[in-house]
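Late entry, 6-O-phosphono-beta-D-fructofuranose complex.
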Amino acid sequence: MPASSIKRIAICTGGGDAPGLNAVIRAAVLSAINCGWEVYGIRDGFNGLLLPEQYVEGGLVRLTRDRVRGITHLGGTIIGTTNRNNPLEFPIQDADGKIQYVDRSDELVRAFRMHHLDALISIGGDGSLAIANVLSRKGLRVIGVPKTIDNDLEQTVVTFGFETAVAFAVECLDRLHSTASSHGRIMVVETMGRYAGWIALNAGVSGSADVILIPEIPYDITKVTGKIKDREEAGRNFSIVMVAEGARPVGGSFVVKDRPVGHAERLGGIGEKVAAEIQQITGKETRVVVLGHLLRGGSPNAYDRLIALRFGAAAVRALEEGQSGIMVALDPPTVNYVPLEEAIQRMKAVPLDCDTILTARDLGICFGD
Ligand code: F6P
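Prediction complete; structure with ligand written out below:
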């Protein structure tokens, strides 16, 4: 479809929220309006189209200049999001109360046509981008925008939301240093990040953690307690241990909090496990702080605002150029386009030989290996 035939586009935000979503929405809406297009937000991921009966005012919200005024700095997303109800595996309860998972992507494509939506800008992480890819293969014109505080998407140097999450975690580490040293305690700080250690690594190095445990480097708890004992012997009576929620011991598995219906497994609890083991082995008082959703809330920092705005504007430029089935990606100094198919191939894990890991090791930070 030539770009000139676009009259109405939709925007959706899917998966866990991340600081910067509203900035993407604002830039995309203003750019699209400049092209003469109407813009609609789909409420709560794709729920607005798949479960319209749940919305008294309709599952689509018209996004005008007025509606997106003053939202760049706001956390969350004005159109709502969800990390349930994946249209490719939509949970439906059968007559016996059992949950069946059905593919509703064809129905979704029909809903787009019914509402005369000529294109979609899908802002999300790996799950949302995989859905976007299927919709694009089914003939919908789709542009993906990479979002996640986890920074685990390949093909973009960074996702928006990540830097804000790291900055907040560093502020927490700074605060925890003073209380830890006053009490001579071990503070274990658990971060989000799913199966990648980016948040724990970047925040841990910047915030002077003594130990950083990430999924990419399975840990041996005696190496961790060894580091704490070495510090004690050197006269430092406290230690800060940063633990990614996906960290796991050598030969062990992830700590899964729960597996809600229609939702990927939720990690969480490794901080408690590590803290209990440290206290037991060292005899030192140990406390746990789980940063959790605090990392996702709040205002995006300047860096995230800027890349989010750039991504939103680039997504509309891509549509104008007649592109589809691509994701906008940060490739400094520019924003380029990569096929969605490639963008979702692999999770971006922390490379073990990356400069940040080398730096951490040079600083004496222990990875439990
Ligand atoms: O992917 C973003 C993320 O915040 C992960 O770091 C975390 O594991 C997950 O989402 C938490 O999901 P929920 O908001 O459903 O608890």
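The CA atoms of residues 123 and 221 lie 39 Å apart. Will revisit in the morning.
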